[in-house]
Amino acid sequence: MAKFDQEILKAELSVGEVAERSGVAVSAIHFYEEKGLISSRRNKGNQRRFKRDVLRIISLIKVAQGLGIPLEAIKNALDTMPKNRQPTGEDWQKLSKKWKEDLNERIAKMTLMRDQLNHCIGCGCLSLKECPLRNPLDKLSKKGTGAVLLE
Ligand code: FES
């Protein structure tokens, strides 16, 4: 094997190595790749080879999933990262800023729902018209009563 090929092999990881180092199942790695969150190349033996930075990306995916961020939003965020160089601290901060805003929005929404739950405990009507938990985003109610969309 040529020296250059050996250096590439050292710089890259097999799917098993990625699984071992990241603590993520091989099936999850395949799933992330299928969804376009991570990528690999095929070697001469048609085996996947991942760049080492895939470990950081997988860590980021796991953290984001833990925060309840949907995979599609994670992919959209990763798509904004530079492709031709290693992401800088500033790149990661831009990404985390967007997620922080989303997280704050969700926390505000969940807090409102929690407070509305106090009102609903003991009621149990779950009325589409009256219950804020059953119909929390009833924005159309502000436009009038009845079938607003049919008008
Ligand atoms: S359950 Fe009655 S108002 Fe929510």
From TrEMBL:
Coiled coil: none
Organism of provenance: Peredibacter starrii
SUPFAM superfamilies per the UniProt record, alphabetical: Putative DNA-binding domain (SSF46955)
Name of the protein this chain belongs to: Redox-sensitive transcriptional activator SoxR
Domain HTH merR-type residue range list: 12-80
Pfam families found in the cross-reference section: MerR, MerR-DNA-bind
Stored InterPro entries: DNA-bd_dom_put_sf, MerR-type_HTH_dom, MerR_fam, Redox-sen_tscrpt-act_SoxR, Tscrpt_reg_MerR_DNA-bd
Residues annotated as transmembrane: none
Keywords attached to this entry: 2Fe-2S, DNA-binding, Iron, Iron-sulfur, Metal-binding, Transcription, Transcription regulation
Annotated GO MF terms: 2 iron, 2 sulfur cluster binding; DNA binding; DNA-binding transcription factor activity; metal ion binding
GO-annotated biological processes: response to oxidative stress
